[in-house]
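Narrative summary of target 7.
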Amino acid sequence: MEFFSNVLLPLGVYMIPISFILLGVGMIWSMASNPKGAIKSIAGVLVMVIIYLIGYSMADPTNTAPIPASGSIVKAVEAGLVTFIVLLIITVAAMFFAMVRDFTK
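Modeled conformation, tokenized:
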């Protein structure tokens, strides 16, 4: 247990910012090497942000859980759940249509 708390936990804390930096560098590298793909990626991120903002604007700030949380936190969590569900439905529908398209070819 000491190995976890003395070595692995601090290592994880340092690896999180390093992974975000590498993620940013990789995104910039990918955008520079494939601009057409970068436009599609940016469009996908914008669609996700729009879905999140719509979910946030529709969310109810009333906290019904026994956990103390402010109205903005409740709205953010509900918007995240709505975003997840909408993107899950879109993904399943896209997989279904791709499967149907492959069967009809």
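The chain has two domains: 1-33, 39-105.
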